[in-house]
Write a structure and sequence with these properties.
The complex is a heterodimer of chains A (288) and B (804). In chain A, 35% of the residues lie in helices and 26% in strands. Chain A has 288 residues and is an alpha+beta fold. Chain A is globular and about 60 Å long. Chain A starts with 6 loop residues before the first strand and ends with a helix. Chain B has three domains: 172 residues, Aldehyde Oxidoreductase, domain 4 (2-Layer Sandwich); 185 residues, Aldehyde oxidase/xanthine dehydrogenase, a/b hammerhead (Aldehyde Oxidoreductase, domain 3); 333 residues, Aldehyde Oxidoreductase, domain 4, CATH 3.30.365. In chain B, a hairpin with a 5-residue loop joins strand 26 and strand 27. Chain B is of the alpha+beta class and 804 residues long. In chain B, the strands form eleven sheets. Chain B has a seven-stranded mixed β-sheet, sandwiched between helices. In chain B, strands 11, 12, 17, 18, 19 and 20 form a six-stranded mixed β-sheet that branches. In chain B, 28% of the residues lie in helices and 26% in strands. Bound molecules: flavin-adenine dinucleotide. Flavin-adenine dinucleotide binds next to strand 2, helix 2, helix 7 and strand 10 of chain A.
């Protein structure tokens, strides 16, 4: 329960942080809210020699609208996401998700950037960002680049971010007015990671699904975009037979671990149940 | 009398005595963060110890190389079994008559076992140093499943006792066998089963879990080599027993061992016995001549210090077709882990499991318990219950439901039919206990009326029909349980720990101006002793509770007692408190009579003093009497006013209660919602109703946790799975149901104030109540028994298996 020794740096600009990470090499790690990294260090599953704390970099905080996009700074906390008036208006799926992440203490410190950069399949925001088709802005020694959330996750704790790169912002296209959304998460208790969870963002037209995106949390090595299920539902009415087929298609791409939350078969089935419920709730919320 | 003279009611209220909802006095410091716990203790020059623990469940230790650790600046020493052997301290005796390795001797027998003890200048250096100790292991086949423990080809675990065919409790049948304990009439029971119209048989597993107090186990040992005195501060539920053990092991005379238990952050049975950490801290302090602190972390606590339960109970009932129970037969396979470190009274290797006939008048019964070794952590402690009573009550309360189902009878009716009648008390049970008192029918009826039982069953019938019609995916369970506890161990004739009878004690000393200090041999870990013992004295002696200070935990000042567990504080030390107070009161009566110039038979007690019979105006208050005791005692009477009592209880006490749980279950996810939970407790005389309610809330919450998911799991290799609060289910306020509490009062006839103890009842009665609710929900689909814990996935799996 006591981490190994490490050096601590606290830069005040992105450039400084990137420079520090480049200089310190691959034994250095960025520190955001610390609520994934520090537990790992306490268990000595992770023993970075240096931490570069991003919390003093003002440019990494806050939510703003830029044209048809909402831009969220990487160091914006879950608590701030829950309180933010812009998100409540434009992207209510995000605060709905924040509300079921961990507990208030953790949400006061845990950040969106840390949640999506972490690469833990248990994190809730990555599947939501894939559902919303978000783009991550990464800053590194060679400048800035953009990577789609849908292309970012490569394996457990393995992402498209290069060593020395930090995630500075998340850009999300604003869904059309009247869109429906839902995040359904099954967990054992408050503060637990998902047994399985499903995110749905959709628009309806004339009683049928017009556009839809579906993300699944914690049922594979990475968050999943349920593309086959999306294809089945797009343009279709939410008849039981169609929903059954879509749920089966979503379940088919899961590959969860068996753990204290239950055996793999249970978690797959729960991904299906969560999707079913998220679909129903999102459709009910959508204005046709 | 003028208007200012307080009324009788006002005088009584001022005492805040028994029956009063007095606020907990200890909470003043706890709620302000001013408690003093072991880890708050910082002594000059104090070092810090930490364990290197086994990564394997079963392995031979080939080599331990501590050189790199010793080279780390700040590391003072590394102890291994080789260092303890010359002192004969590499093994320590357990309370169950076995020995336990202090540091692994040649072999490790469970994951997390203590292998080496590193002592360093601070805990951070110690944490780095344990990583530098290199242990070379040769893996051996692990034995995880207790049902395989006595297989012919099962691996030999305990090489240290492999040639011992006799254990502490009789012959051993196999190299992994610890004891067989039997009680009851085997042939009579077999005959009852042969004659029975209806019988049921079910293997009821009570899974391995852990008491998990929020404060983990810890101690500070400080050896003063000049005085030859050892002081040991620790999280001890039984500080005097620890002093005796420490004295025996360290070879230091008992009066030179000072054991002090400061504030304790929960015990629940986890802090009764002695752990390798205590021994190592003591040895390290003796060797290094400075204080040494040892504090375990959460994972160490959950994976290495005493677990609870792990009882696998094949339970059978025999009955007539109209539902009269005619016999009970139980066989228990008890998984004790690598060492038998149960904290039971010496003569009771399976605790009081023979209370398993429950609240029913069962004419004949037989119980056999086989204890076995496996490659798991040792323990088997009484987690918020008297010794193995939760297991016993689970067995009978599940069995009664299964029998009701087979008979096609309502289980409340079946219980009513078989209850011991109020007139039958004191009642001698088939397995040897004398139940002191009870009125089960009244309690059960009150509970059923309170919840509207018939209406609930009607609603359940409708919901089942709707489910079968495919209109809902939710099913409803109504869980009942009626428990009889056996607490307050216990009479010295049959209860001892290390040969010391299980009496308890109180010493009350009244100072000249009326303030009182009282000390007991028990030790609160959150039960509120400082509040309730004072209330007993307040009523007995007519002195306001606020003028009475209660002190426990310092073995130099408190009289010898056996500590707090098994709901024994009120039944035993509470009785000692009343008896000591009565000794003082008898002397006070003599003094009052002398002051009033009458014969002592002519004065009578009057709330807070004595008055002359028939002359109520002629009275002396306790305050005046106390002053006189120091100022001008009657001739030929010693001055002063104090008394001590060592109370040897004539019998256990038998609290009981009726609980009802209403639960809705979503069969698609296995997610459940406890809609209602009603708990009626009868703990005899109620000292402080608010504290009782708090104890019931806490016990029910732990019962909910255990029944619904709290578990120490092992994989097939003997790896502990999920020994952290991420996985180990500790419900938060969000998950915890709303509790409705109620009571009846049937005082214990043999206890000086009629009190029976309550801290553990809600846990004992709660676990089967939750489990019965889950099982009841699925009964209509043809299920007879679903094993605990009832976490989401297991409920879902059961639903699927039943085609729901
Ligand atoms: C008890 C508990 C329960 C939890 N439950 C949930 C839950 O239900 N759902 C959930 O989603 N999460 C949960 N979490 C995790 C929590 O949300 C974390 O806060 C989050 O995963 C990481 O965010 P952070 O800001 O704390 O990042 P940190 O822990 O500081 O960092 C996490 C990782 O991301 C890297 N990193 C952080 N920021 C950046 C950046 N800007 N650029 C590049 N790399 C970066 C770090 O180097 C590190 O490797 C839980 C945590 C705890 C302790």
């Amino acid at each position: 329960m006591i981490p190994a020794n490490f050096a601590y740096h606290s830069p005040s600009t992105v450039e400084e942080a990137v420079g520090l990470l480049a200089r310190l090499g691959d034994e250095a790690r960025a520190l955001a809210g610390g609520h994934s990294l520090i537990p790992m260090m306490k268990l000595r599953l992770s023993a970075p020699e240096a931490l570069v704390d991003l919390s003093r970099i003002a440019a990494l905080k806050g939510v703003r609208e830029e044209g048809s996009e909402v831009v969220i700074g990487a160091m914006t906390t879950q608590h701030q996401l829950l309180q933010d008036p812009i998100l409540a208006q434009t992207l209510p799926l995000i605060p709905e998700t924040s509300a079921v992440i961990a507990d208030p203490q953790i949400r006061y410190r845990g950040t969106l950037g840390g949640n999506v950069a972490n690469g833990d399949p248990g994190n809730d925001m990555p599947a939501v960002m894939m559902t919303l088709d978000a783009t991550y802005t990464l800053a590194g020694p060679n400048g800035e680049r953009a990577v789609k959330a849908r292309e970012f996750y490569q394996g457990a704790y393995f992402t498209a971010a290069e060593d020395g790169e930090i995630l500075t912002a998340v850009r999300i296209p604003v869904p059309p007015a009247g869109a429906g959304f839902a995040y359904e998460k099954l967990k054992r208790k408050v503060g637990d990671y998902a047994t399985a969870a499903a995110a749905v963002q959709l628009t309806m037209k004339a009683g049928a699904v017009e556009t839809i995106a579906i993300g699944l949390t914690n049922v594979s090595e990475t968050p999943l975009l349920a593309e086959d299920a999306m294809a089945i539902l797009a343009g279709a009415r939410l008849e039981p037979e169609v929903v059954d087929r879509a749920v089966a298609a979503a379940e088919a791409i899961t590959n969860p671990a068996s753990d204290g939350r239950g055996p793999a078969e249970y978690r797959t089935a729960m991904a299906g149940v969560m999707l079913r419920r998220a679909l129903a709730r999102a459709a009910a919320r959508a204005q046709a | 009398m003028n208007d200012m003279t307080p009324t009788r009611e006002e005088r009584e209220a001022k005492l805040q005595g028994m029956g009063c909802k007095r606020k907990r006095v200890e909470d003043v410091r706890f709620t302000q963060g001013r408690g003093q716990y072991v880890d708050d203790l910082k002594l000059p020059g104090m070092l810090f110890g930490d364990f290197v623990r086994s990564t394997y469940a079963h392995a031979r230790i080939k080599k331990i190389d501590a050189s790199a650790a010793l080279a780390l600046p700040g590391v003072k020493a590394v102890l291994t079994a080789a260092d303890l052997k010359p002192l004969n301290l590499h093994y320590m005796p357990t309370l169950a008559g076995d020995v336990q390795a202090v540091l692994a001797d040649e072999k490790v027998l469970f994951q997390g076992q203590e292998v080496a003890f590193v002592i360093a200048e601070d805990r951070y250096i110690a944490a780095d140093a344990i990583e530098l100790v290199e242990v070379e292991y040769e893996e051996l086949a692990p034995l995880v499943d207790p049902f395989q423990a006595m297989a012919e080809d099962a691996p030999l675990l305990r090489e240290d006792i492999k040639d011992k065919t006799e254990g502490a409790h009789g012959p051993r049948k196999h190299h992994n066998h610890i004891f067989e304990w039997t009680i009851g009439d085997r042939t009579g029971t077999d005959a009852a089963f042969d004659k029975a119209d209806v019988t049921i048989k079910e293997m009821l597993s009570y899974h391995r879990t852990h008491p998990s107090p929020l404060e983990t186990c810890q101690c500070v040992a400080s050896m003063d080599k000049i005085r030859g005195e050892l002081t040991l501060w620790g999280t001890f539920q039984a500080p005097h027993v620890i002093r005796t053990v420490a004295s025996m092991l360290a070879g230091i005379p008992e009066h030179k061992v000072h054991v002090i238990a400061p504030d304790i952050g929960g015990g629940f049975g986890n802090k009764v016995g002695a752990y390798p950490g205590y021994i190592c801290a003591v040895v390290a302090s003796i060797v290094l001549g400075v204080p040494v602190k040892w504090v375990e972390d959460r994972m160490e606590n959950l994976s290495a210090t005493s677990f609870a339960r792990d009882y696998h109970m094949t339970t059978e009932l025999a009955a007539t077709k109209d539902g009269t129970i005619t016999g009970m037969r139980v066989h228990v396979l008890a998984d004790h882990g690598a060492f038998d470190a149960c904290a039971d009274p010496s003569k009771w290797p399976a605790g009081f499991m023979n209370i398993c006939t429950g609240s029913y008048d069962i004419p004949v019964a037989h119980l056999a318990v086989d204890g076995v070794y496996t490659n798991k952590a040792p323990g088997g402690v009484a987690y918020r219950c008297s010794f193995r009573v939760t297991e016993a009550v689970y067995a009978i309360e599940r069995a009664i439901e299964i029998l009701a189902q087979k008979l096609g009878m309502d289980s409340a009716e079946l219980r009513m039919k078989n209850f011991i009648e109020a007139e039958q008390f004191p009642y001698n049970s088939a397995l040897g206990w004398e139940y002191d008192s009870g009125d089960y029918h009244t309690a059960m009826r009150k509970a059923l009326d309170a919840v509207g039982y018939d209406a609930l069953r009607a609603e359940q019938r409708e919901k089942r029909a709707a489910f079968e019609r495919g209109e809902t995916r939710e099913i409803m369970g109504i869980g009942l349980s009626f428990f009889t506890e056996i607490v307050g161990a216990g009479p010295t004739r049959n209860c001892d720990i290390l040969g010391i009878g299980m009496f308890d004690s109180a010493e009350i000393r009244i100072h000249p101006t009326g303030g009182v200090i009282a000390r007991m041999g028990t030790k609160s870990q959150g039960q509120g002793h400082e509040t309730t013992y004072a209330q007993i004295i307040a009523t007995e002696l007519g002195i306001p509770a606020d003028d009475i200070m209660i002190e426990e935990g310092n073995t130099d000042t408190a009289p010898y007692g056996l500590g707090t567990y098994g709901s024994r504080s009120t039944p035993v030390a509470g009785a000692a408190t009343a008896v000591a107070a009565r000794k003082i009161k008898a002397k006070a009566q003599m003094i009052a009579a002398h002051m009033l110039e009458v014969h002592h038979d002519d004065v009578e007690w009057d709330i807070d003093g004595f008055r002359v019979k028939g002359l109520p105006e002629s009275r002396k208050s306790m305050k005046e009497i106390v002053w006189a005791a120091y100022n001008q005692p009657p001739p030929n009477m010693e001055p002063g006013l104090e008394a001590v009592s060592y109370y040897d209880p004539p019998n256990m006490t038998y609290p009981f209660g009726a609980y009802v749980c209403v639960m809705d279950i979503d069969v698609d996810t296995g997610v459940y919602k406890v809609r209602r939970f009603y708990a009626l407790d009868d703990c005899g005389t109620r000292i402080n109703p608010m504290i009782i309610e708090g104890q019931v809330h806490g016990g029910l919450t732990e019962a909910f946790a255990v029944a619904m998911g709290q578990e120490i799991r092992y994989d097939e290799q003997g790896n502990v799975m999920g020994a952290s609060f991420m996985d180990f289910f500790l419900p938060t306020a969000v998950e915890t149901p709303v509790w409705e509490t109620d009571h009846t009062v049937t005082p214990s006839p043999h206890h000086p104030i009629g009190a029976k103890g309550v801290g553990e009842s809600p846990h004992v009665g709660g676990v089967p109540c939750f489990s019965n609710a889950v099982n009841d929900a699925f009964a209509f689909l043809g299920s007879t028994h679903i094993q605990m814990p009832h976490d989401h996935w297991r409920i879902w799996k059961a639903a699927r298996a039943l085609g729901a």
